[in-house]
Amino acid sequence: MAHALRTTAEDFVEGLKSFERETITKELLRQYVDSQRLTPDALKPYTFFRDDFYTRNLIYRDDLFEVMTICWKPGQKTAIHTHNGQLGWMTMAQGEVAVHNYRYVRCNAPENQNVIGLDCLGGATEIELERLRTEECANNGCVITVDKLQTIHQIENVDPAAAGCISLHVYSKPFDSCIAFDLQKHHCYRRTLSYYSQLGKVEVEIDAPSPSRQ
After folding, report:
1. Are 48 and 61 in contact (CB under 8 A)?
2. Mean pLDDT over residues 109-138, rounded?
3. What's phi and psi for 117, nearest 5 deg?
4. N or C: which end of the chain has fewer CB within 10 A?
5. Fold of the 5-199 domain
6. Which has the closest alpha carbon to 68: 155, 128, 1?
7. Coil, helix or strand at residue 189
8. Which residues contact 172 (CB under 8 A, 6 or more apart)?
9. Angle at 98 between CA 17 and CA 72, to 5 degrees
10. Are the C-beta atoms of 186 and 109 separated by less than 8 Å?
11. What 3-state DSSP class applies to 98?
12. How many CB atoms lie within 10 A of CB 150?
């Protein structure tokens, strides 16, 4: 791992914006995210925990980049989901999460993958995914990435610490929906993504999470 510089969220974003003048690649951004580690204190304005579900908290967004924290209480996890064909990078500022990677094998609606601007429309009622490796992502650990080949995963907070986990996510390009998989019911669907807070301000207090919150 590269030597990590401690920086502010604002400086981190300014550094990201400097890449917008060149071709954005998985490795180029991995090196940058690896070298610019944000502390829990630096992310405090964007840190909100809920007992009933994890929270997605927007730090910055433009046409090329989306930066957010996700705050996890013990046991909270995402649905198995895609990233709409975009690149993504994740590090931990606090705690440790498990990332379960999957590979698409087959479904009964493959034609729904042939659509402009989206990775898939969803709607399959028979799905086969192969579970691959599980990666551990911890504070000062490696950068977890998603790309156009490995795009399906599930994130789970396996850290029992009551303080909770804080992860930092960068996506290029931003995306507002994804495919979520319910392997018990053997179906997938496209779902809209939302933020719990934007720029440090809670948007809407939500009383209950959706069944497969991403």
Report:
1. no
2. 94
3. 85, -10
4. N
5. Jelly Rolls (2.60.120)
6. 155
7. strand
8. 24, 29, 64, 65, 66, 86, 87, 88
9. 70
10. no
11. strand
12. 13
Domain-by-domain residue ranges, the chain? 5-199
Q: What does the pLDDT average to over 95-118?
A: 94
- For residue 57, what are its two tokens? 């908290």
Distance separating alpha carbons of residues 115 and 190, to the nearest angstrom: 13
Q: What is the 3-state secondary structure (H, E, C) of 9-53?
A: HHHHHHHHHHHHHCCCCHHHHHHHHHHEECCCCCCHHHCCCCCCC
Per-residue confidence (pLDDT) for residue 5, from 0 to 100: 53
Rounded-to-integer distance, Cα 21 and Cα 136, Å: 33
Largest CA distance in the chain: 48
CA dihedral 31, 96, 200, 2 (to 10 degrees): -20
Q: 47 is written with which tokens?
A: 């840190």
Kindly state the tokens that stand for 114: 């042939």
The CA–CA distances, whole Å, from 179 to 81, 148, 214 equal: 5, 14, 9
What are the tens digits of pLDDT across the range 46-97?
Answer: 999 999 999 999 999 999 999 999 999 999 999 999 999 999 999 999 999 9
